Amino acid sequence: MGAARSKRSTLKDVAREAGVSIGLASRVLRGHGPYSAEAAQRVIEAATRLDYRPDMLARSLRLGRSRALGFVVSYLLSPHWTTFARDVDAAASRHAYQALVGTAATDIAAEQAYLRTLVEHRVAGIIAAPSPPSEPLVGEIVASGVPMVLLGTPNAELGAPRLNLADRLGARQATEHLLELGHRRIGMLAGPTEMWPARERLEGYRDALRAAGIALDERYVGGGTHRFGDAYEAMGRLLDLPDRPTAVLAGNELAGAAALQCLKDRGVRLPAEMSVVIFGDPLWASFYRPAITAVRVPRAELARMAVETLVTLVAGRGGDEVPDVQVVHLELVVRESTARPI
After folding, report:
1. Closest CA to 39 of 64, 16, 69, 19
2. Does the predicted TM-score (pTM) go above 0.85?
3. Same domain for 179 and 271?
4. Do residues 189 and 225 share a domain?
5. How many angstroms separate the CA atoms of 158 and 138, rounded?
6. Is the C-alpha dihedral spanning 152, 153, 154, 156 positive or negative?
7. Is residue 322 situated within a structural domain?
8. How far apart are CA 323 and CA 312, in angstroms?
C-alpha cells in the first residue's frame, strides 16, 4: 500500500482490508461491543495502513454538540412517518432538544446527502430509518462517533442501537383474524418491499396462510410501492380476479386509503362484500364508516423510546443501559370493517 491514496479511506475500506464486517470494524474503532483481540489487531493494523481517519466534524461532536437531533426518513409523505416525525419533535422538546427532520423522497443520493449534512451541522445525534444502500454510510457515521438510533432494520452490524416493530407478528395476527372469521381468499397490498418492515409484514401474512394450510396465491399480493396510485390499481386488479378476495390486508396507511377509495369507486360494500384491515391505524380509521379494523402502531411510544435512547447515547451512557435491539409490539384493533364472508 505504498502508493498515495487519491481519496480518504472509508470504514468499508478498513473492513475489507482487515477481512471483517463493517460492524466489527466499527466496534473495534469505537472501542465498544464484542470483538476478539485478534480481530482488533487486524482492524487497527488495516486502519493504520490505510491512514483511516473518521470525519473530524463528526469527531468534534464529542467536544461540543448542538441541542439538535436529526431525523432522516426516506418518505415523509407516508402518513406513518409524518405522524412519527411530529412525535419525535415532541419527545425531543421534552429533553430540551430541537428535531431537524429531513426526507429523501425515496432518493438514495438525497438520503445520504441529508445524513452528511446533519453530521456537518454537528447535530447531537441522529435517528434514521435507513434504506439498505445507505447502510455503509450509516456504519461510517456511527464509527466516527456520532450517536445514532436506527429504526426498522435487521442489520446488527451497523454498530448502533435499533428499534424495530414486531411487523411480522402484527401482520400474522391480522391475517389470522380474517381466517378466524372464515375468509380463505385474502388479498395483501404490500408496502415498498425493498424496505425490511414491508417485507416482514408480507411474510407475516404468508406465515398465517401457511399455518392455516392455505396455498399461497401470488395473484392476491399487490402494491409494493409508496404510491397511492399503484395501490389503487393493485386493489382494482384484485377486484377483477374471477375468484376475487373476500378480504384484504393493507400493508400501510397509504395503501389502506387507496384500497378504500377503490372499493368505494367500485361500489363494493364493507364488510358485506369485502373485509378490510389496515396496518397503522390512522386517526380517521375510527370515524370512517364503517370503522376500520387496524393494526395499531404505538408511534408516540416508539418516538419516545427512540429519543430517550439517543439522549442516553449523547450523554455517554451507552453500554448496558442501551440494548442492541428493542422490539415494539403492535395491537390489533377490531372494528366494523371485518366480518364473516357471505
Report:
1. 19
2. no
3. yes
4. yes
5. 7
6. negative
7. yes
8. 11
β-strand partners of 176 = none
Task: Specify whether 212 is located in the same domain as 304.
Answer: no
Q: From CA 307, how far away is CA 44, in angstroms rounded?
A: 32
d(CA 301, CA 90): 11
| Distance from C-alpha of 158 to C-alpha of 143, rounded to nearest angstrom | 9
34 in any annotated domain = yes
Please determine, for residue 234, whether its predicted confidence score (pLDDT) is greater than 90: yes
Q: Which residues, at least 6 apart from 63, have a Cβ–Cβ distance to it below 8 Å?
A: none
Residues 176 and 288 in one domain: yes
Whether 2 is covered by a domain: the verdict is: no
Q: In terms of domains, do 239 and 281 share one?
A: yes
Cell triple for 18: 482487515
The percent of residues in the chain predicted with pLDDT above 90, rounded, is: 45
Cα dihedral across residues 142, 147, 151, 154: positive or negative:
positive
278: domain CATH number is: 3.40.50.2300
CA distance 226 to 222: 12
Q: Strands (DSSP E) along 191-258, which ranges?
A: 221-223, 247-250
Q: Is residue 342 part of a domain?
A: no
Helix (H) or strand (E) holding 73: strand 68-73
236 conformational bin, left if phi > 0, alpha if psi -120 to 50, beta if neither: alpha
Q: Check whether residue 290 and residue 196 sit in a common domain.
A: yes
**Domain around 40:** 11-49
Q: What is the pLDDT of residues 308-319, one digit of tens each?
A: 999 999 887 766
CA dist., res. 150 & res. 138, Å (int): 9
Is there a cis peptide before residue 197, judged by omega within 30 degrees of 0? no
- Segment 6-64, tens digit of pLDDT: 467 788 888 889 998 888 887 777 655 667 778 777 887 888 788 776 554 444 444 45
Q: Could you read off the pLDDT of 99-136 as tens digits, one per residue?
A: 888 776 667 888 888 898 888 888 899 999 888 888 99
Gyration radius (Cα) of the chain, Å = 23
Please tell me the distance from the alpha carbon of residue 40 to that of residue 57, in angstroms, as a whole number.
Answer: 25
Q: Using alpha carbons, select from 4, 3, 25 the residue that is nearest to residue 14.
A: 25
CA dihedral 305, 311, 315, 319 (to 10 degrees): 30
